[in-house]
Amino acid sequence: MLFGLFKRIDHTKKILIIHIAKTAGTSLRRMLEREYGAKHIYPGSFYLKRFDRGSYPMGSQMLRDYAGFPPHKVLVGHFTAAMADMVPVPYQTATFLREPIQRSLSMLSHFSHKLHIPVATLLENEQFMADNIADFQTRIMGADGVCDPHAVGTVDDDVLDRALGRLGSLDFVGITERFAESCRRFDSLFETRISKSIQRSNVLRPEGTELSDHIPQIEPLVRRDRILYDVALSRFNVH
Questions:
Q1: Which of 103, 133, 143, 235 is the least buried, fewest Cβ under 10 Å from its Cβ?
Q2: Segment 173-186 mean pLDDT
Q3: How many domains, the chain?
Q4: Closest C-alpha to 16, from 68, 116, 86, 64
Q5: What is the pLDDT of residues 15-57, one digit of tens each?
Q6: Residue 123 belongs to domain with CATH number
Q7: What is the pLDDT of residue 147?
Q8: CA atoms of 9 and 190, how far apart (whole Å)
Q9: Tell me: the pLDDT tens digits for 110-160?
């Protein structure tokens, strides 16, 4: 039972999208907005303007406010995979994983432009690296009882073990580097047509070779993410 490919999907259930930053989750959300309508993706483009800087609210805030949510088909946010166990009704679950170095470079590039801070300076900021780079995907997938990513404590091998366990429990795990193929599999599983509306310019934006010099500094920080991603990719390749 790998990534939902052989699961019996209950299409009456809503879909919970665990949007790991810099894994093409925004592209996926916009495609689902075209599929179901913007008002049926919460909090998607129609609703995000209500929140600070147009960003997703914290997962803990979403749990507190859940009873007041508008009718929706898809619930999406930058929360941990544990959110699936914490919402009051069951959802189908989906996420994307990305090659750890490429995700890290994309995150560094994003914050460098947003904050007007050189990437080299961000790399020297231990708190920034701990919050946004170091085994970030493992933290999202392996959190236990915590829905806010930055509320997760130390990311150790126990967290990795839980993250690996979740690979088989989620209904769908896509691979960002295989976005088109992943979307076709998403369509097959959830009976959608998102693969017909892929906007490739929004997926895997090139970061430029100027960041490649930083790879040796990043690699030791994503050791567990590498294990998680390699297992996910291996399972994806089987099917």
A1: 235
A2: 97
A3: 1
A4: 86
A5: 999 999 999 999 999 999 999 999 999 999 999 988 877 789 9
A6: 3.40.50.300
A7: 95
A8: 7
A9: 999 999 999 999 999 999 999 999 999 999 999 999 999 989 989 999 999
- What is the C-alpha separation between 29 and 82, in angstroms, rounded? 20
Tokens of 163: 């993250």
Give the amino acid at 168: G
Structure tokens at 71: 């009718």
Cis peptide before 57 (omega within 30 of 0): no
DSSP category for residue 93? E
d(CA 113, CA 118): 8
* CB hemisphere CA count around 180 (13 angstroms): 5
2: in domain: no
Question: What six digits make up the tokens of 156?
Answer: 């150790």
Classify residue 171 by its DSSP letter. S
Q: Is the entire prediction scored with pTM above 0.85?
A: yes
Domain that includes residue 65, residue range? 15-238
DSSP β-ladder status, 172-175 and 92-97: parallel
Residue 229 lies in a domain: yes
Q: What is the DSSP letter of 97?
A: E
Q: Which residue has the tokens 């007007």?
A: 116
Please tell me the predicted confidence (pLDDT) of residue 54.
79
181 φ/ψ angles, rounded to the nearest 5 degrees = -65, -40
Question: Alpha-carbon distance 89 to 228, whole Å?
Answer: 28
